[in-house]
Amino acid sequence: MARRRSGGSAGARTLARRRAMQALYQWQLTGQGSKDIILQFAAEEDHQRADHELFRELVREVIEDREALDRDIGEISDRSTDQLDPVEHGILLMAMYELKHRTDVPFRVVINEAVELSRAYGAEDGHKFVNALLDRAARKYRQPETSVQS
């Protein structure tokens, strides 16, 4: 099911993804509910420039659908999700959600944003793992789109 495109500029969507990655990291460490995390992040000054709708959707839907997203990651990974660094795990959950449910966002944008986040915030070579995994996921979930652009 394709969701409608969030409003706002590309910069606001990039910031929303960065903020969602930070929120998902916090969630993994604290176990807080999505509503509390969303309210906390929304109160921060930096959040005003982000695409609020995309941020809320990513945090809420990833937390709600975590088990299925983890299964999806496990199907294309040689590592179990409990072995993943929390930063890369959050990024993969978010990107996997977008690949599966936000077909209005080109798969290359999803992968690029995730790789850039993992370069900036993840382990030293984590971006290579994220890139490889999401490339496999894109071929699985966006096959018609990937075959046209290959």
Give a structural overview.
The chain has 150 residues and is an all-alpha fold. Helices cover 72% and strands 0% of the residues.
Given this structure, which CATH class is correct? Answer: Mainly Alpha
What value does the Rg take, in angstroms? 14 Å
Number of helices, where a helix is a run of at least 4 consecutive DSSP H or I residues: 8
Please indicate the percent range of residues in DSSP E strands (runs of 2 or more): under 5%
Low-confidence stretches: 1-6
Which keywords apply here?
mainly alpha; N-utilizing Substance Protein B Homolog, Chain A; globular; disordered N terminus; 72% helix; 150 residues
How would you summarize the topology of this molecule?
Layout (H helix, E strand, L loop, with lengths): L9 H21 L3 H9 L9 H13 L1 H11 L9 H16 L5 H15 L4 H16 L1 H7 L1
Helix pairs in contact: 1-2, 1-3, 1-5, 2-3, 3-5, 4-5, 5-6, 5-7, 6-7, 7-8
Kindly summarize this structure in a few lines.
With 150 residues, the chain is mainly alpha-helical. The protein has a single domain (10-143), classed as NusB-like (N-utilizing Substance Protein B Homolog, Chain A, Orthogonal Bundle).
